[in-house]
TrEMBL record, chains A, B:
The keyword Ribonucleoprotein does not apply. One of its GO terms (molecular function) is oxidoreductase activity. Its cofactor is FAD. InterPro entries: FAD-bd_OxRdtase (IPR050260), FAD/NAD-bd_sf (IPR036188), FAD/NAD-binding_dom (IPR023753), FAD/NAD-linked_Rdtase_dimer_sf (IPR016156), Pyr_nucl-diS_OxRdtase_dimer (IPR004099), Rhodanese-like_dom (IPR001763), Rhodanese-like_dom_sf (IPR036873). PROSITE patterns: RHODANESE_3. Residues 463-553 form the Rhodanese domain. The keyword Hydrolase does not apply. SMART domains: RHOD. Belongs to the class-III pyridine nucleotide-disulfide oxidoreductase family. This is Pyridine nucleotide-disulfide oxidoreductase. The lineage of its organism: Bacteria, Bacillati, Bacillota, Bacilli, Bacillales. Pfam families: Pyr_redox_2, Pyr_redox_dim, Rhodanese. It comes from the Bacteria. Keywords: FAD, Flavoprotein, Oxidoreductase, Redox-active center.
Length: 565, 565
């Protein structure tokens, strides 16, 4: 007779753990309890039903109880809520939500994978209206879709600019709804720094999404919402996506230890404070490899690894636990965006001594038709050159570059390692000097003081203070649009125009993407100029950073409800 | 007065070295000598002019001498051949090919970047005909293009199935020419193993390319070529791409040391045996990080790194030299293919103790519309689990996965490291358990003897010897096409049909992509079966491997001139 393994929660982590136990032990008795009507759903894909990219909501269900039984001999019980853990007897109390009956099941090992539930805002008038939704399972997304269609809804408000909120907003917009996104912070998508995220802000606005930042939901009225600042936004339906909280009720009531982040505390093998109870997924806290402290990370990849580790550990095999770094990606209209590790905000909060560089090379050989600019930001520790994190946004395969950085971080690599990587190249797929090699070279120059730069976020102040800004692009490029107050001295002319470049005050140089200005900065340094700075992000970056402002002349200004603060 | 730096060769490495010298030293006098009429061309992009993907051949020239002068204050002399190095005087003898004059230039440091030239086959009748071409520079590609158009050529033969040959063949085919590829070896694209390359063979054939392997060029006739086996193939033009040889004449005549591979020998900073002469690019031999010996590697990425190292070294800065691993990629019709490090052939030749796994997961969440199967092969050392190399082929971003492997290799990572990588994921861009994580898990299972597999190349013998092969797919899948002699016991039924599975002889199991058969193998092992093997590559892999054969029933057979041996 095999072990009796009970699993609470049949999505992502739970289902993975159950399947892995079966592969290790054909004799184990495995029962999986799921409160909802489905197990093994593709929860990350839920938003794509709203646009019809995933047309049939049934395809979001990857396996049903019958196939769990047939393939894995796993007893998957849906509509079945585990309401209590009786640690002393090693049993759980289970409620069959359909039959409305209660029974007990004994376990040798118990695996908790209850997930996290959407946070609902406090004290918001109208929050209980039938047109207010959250997104957690297939039923939720079907309900939204049905409501919008049956009521011929035109205007939808999404509250919260995290992954779920933005993916929901994108898919609703693709389905031609008028979509507003309301975000309490000054930006959406916190894995990205404020400068990088402007590219995503612009992408939303360019695709007709009404983006409101620095504002929160105050009231849900009839056909509108009202924000904290008093703005009324047309909305016949509201999707709440302001965050999730770990499902800890069962664990708390069983007096399992809860960690400082409010999630279930586990050891390196995901054992809770009870040696027969494991916990995995969104309900637990994990160790952050770079921050050296517990954190919460509601991502599918780590949950799968945890599931495997738990199954292995039940059968005596340990896995090393390297902690998490937080790697994620998103596809948003025409852009891909990805990030890993720390950004400058999280590095700052954690007290790191760090610096960053921001480059924008092409992602493929420039003369290839599918070549596009990639915005790439690299964060590293000073003086060690240890890679702390990176962010990339563009039309091409940004996730490839971020995965390389994630690999470097997991292997404790430095800028030198990144510089030396020998990566694949062909003109249709990349550049001979890959984006990440390029980033490492620029960062090493900066780390070793071989050149200095100012950030794109500092440019406004420079312009307002009448600093000497040189635009190193050719005259035609300058005339098509340029920074206020910038003087135009092309790289191709500067050696004959040195007299125009002051030596008694700081000089800030940019071009289009930073390559020409870098050459000019190096030459001027060589010539004895001691106060020369490259403007990180260059004209492309300034343009994006100040897109909703008027720092740049000559470009077309978009008209939008979005008010950039 | 600055240093006098002379550079021989103005493409790729040479141009990069010159520009880097300028960034380090504004006072240096830099002269770059190029035999051809252009400097700084995108040589990797040359084939794309034949299809019109790069419509204007002038765009293949990235910078001209005038812009080198204006931007970098570099004197780039085209149509200028360096004919002699006078090491004693530290001068070079230069021939102006237009003025037909000869002069000398003195150097403090000399950088050789002469590249490699196409190899011409010996003693082939007709080799000097005007319709026989090679591909090295913009003029070559313009000549081919013009000849084909002016002579209304319909049939073109490409001799050689390496990168250049295949890219030329693809682009000619895209331009609607009838294209034959003749390759002397039994496969094209040697970075790929024989099993993996069948996918590329099929891609060529599927797109109407007449692929001939195991055969060489014997004669170029009028309107046809004749192969060594006597086959006549219609061809009004011939492109020779059987390989390149390093341009060592200058170095040899100057008595610079030549390495065992026949290329210029250099030290860790790319200094030749003369301490004032450096050499970089396709003309030199480099150190292979995994093979621990010199090799030749005609790739653009390493050449750029060498250029930078040389410029730095001239100014007293050393760079560490990690050696090369050989990372490359190619786009071929609808497929992308990439590889890094060693394949099983090179690992075998080098005497490694190694093994490999071959998986074919989807590259994105299966229900996403752009999801496709990715063929992924991982080669690792036994018993250390050190990653030696990988190959990936598919419609999606295979290069992302190979770049991660290249990063792991450069940082001396193992299967454990690969398993633990936390990579980016979103449904439109990847899977929660990334392809590379998945590969590491399978390889670890194999390394630790937790399951055993046979290779796709062994299946034919198993079938012919009436081995017990179980097809674990569902009945409907089996009926649509299956392996000869395979018996169908779906994973969903096997627990009730154990009596049909023999215990007295080896059992080989496959399904569609290896996931279901893996589960069945593990279960049978658990149940006491001692002689159970998973068939690596599974049905998808067998189908591709035996595509030109008849091992599989029920699938549509393509009709092609290609004769699979």
């Amino acid at each position: 007779m095999g072990k009796r393994i009970l699993v609470v929660g049949g999505v992502a982590g739970g289902a993975s753990a159950a399947a892995r136990v079966r592969r290790i032990d054909e004799y184990a008795e495995i029962i999986m309890f799921e409160k909802g009507p489905q197990v093994s759903i593709s929860n990350c894909s839920l938003p794509y039903h709203l646009s019809g990219i995933v047309e049939n909501s049934k395809s979001l269900v990857l396996m049903n109880p019958d196939s769990f039984k047939k393939r894995y001999n796993i007893d998957a019980r849906v509509n079945t809520e585990v309401i209590k853990i009786n640690r002393k007897n090693k049993t759980i109390t289970v409620k069959d939500l359909v039959a409305n009956s209660i029974y007990e099941e004994a376990y040798d090992k118990l695996i908790l994978s209850p997930g996290a539930s959407p946070i609902l805002p406090n004290k918001v008038e109208g929050i209980n209206k039938p047109n207010v939704f959250t997104v957690r399972n297939v039923e939720d997304i079907e309900q939204i879709n049905n409501y919008l269609k049956e009521n011929s809804v035109e205007n939808v408000a999404v509250i919260g600019g995290g992954f779920i909120g933005i993916e929901v907003a994108e898919n609703l917009r693709l389905a031609k709804y008028n979509v507003s996104v309301v975000e309490f912070a000054n930006q959406i998508m916190t894995p990205f720094d404020y400068d990088m995220v402007q590219i995503l802000h612009k992408e939303l606005v360019d695709h007709g999404v009404n983006l409101v930042v620095n504002d929160g939901l105050a009231k849900i009225g009839d056909g509108f919402i009202e924000t904290m600042s008093g703005e009324k936004i047309a909305a016949n339906a509201v999707v709440l996506a302001i965050g999730v909280k770990p499902e800890t009720r069962l664990a708390e009531e069983a007096k399992l230890e809860i960690g400082e982040t409010g999630a279930i505390k586990v050891d390196s093998n995901y054992l809770t404070s009870d040696r027969d109870i494991y916990a995995i997924g969104d309900a637990i806290e994990v160790y952050h490899r770079l921050l050296h402290k517990p954190t919460r990370l509601a991502l599918a990849g780590p949950a799968q690894k945890q599931a495997r580790t738990v199954a292995d550990h039940i059968y005596g095999k340990t896995n090393r636990n390297l902690g998490v770094i937080g790697s994620s990606s998103i596809h948003l209209f025409n852009l891909n965006a990805a990030s890993t590790g720390l950004n400058t905000r999280t590095a700052e909060v954690a007290g790191f001594t760090y610096d960053s560089i921001y480059i924008m090379p092409t992602d493929k050989v420039g003369l290839m038709p599918n070549s596009n600019v990639m915005h790439f930001k690299l964060v590293y520790e000073k003086p060690t050159g240890k890679i702390l994190g990176a962010q990339a946004i563009g039309k091409g395969n940004v996730d490839k570059r971020i995965d390389v950085i994630a690999t470097i971080i997991m292997l404790n690599g430095t800028l030198e390692d990144l510089k030396d990587l020998e990566l694949t190249y062909s003109p249709m797929l990349g550049t001979a000097k890959d984006v990440v090699n390029h980033a490492a070279l620029v960062a090493l120059n900066q780390l070793h003081g071989q050149y200095r730069e100012v950030k794109v976020s500092q440019v406004r102040e420079l312009v307002e203070n009448d600093a000497c800004i040189i635009d190193a692009r050719e005259k035609k490029e300058y005339e098509a649009g340029h920074l206020k107050n910038a003087i135009n001295i092309p790289l191709s002319e500067f050696r004959n125009r040195l007299a125009e470049i002051p030596t008694d005050k700081p000089v800030y140089i940019h071009c289009r993407s930073g390559q020409r200005s870098y050459n000019m900065v190096m030459a001027l340094e060589n010539l004895g100029y001691t106060n020369v700075y490259n403007i990180s992000g260059s004209y492309l970056g300034i343009n994006l950073y100040e897109y909703f402002n008027d720092l740049v002349t000559g470009r077309e200004k978009i008209v939008t409800a979005y008010n950039f603060n």
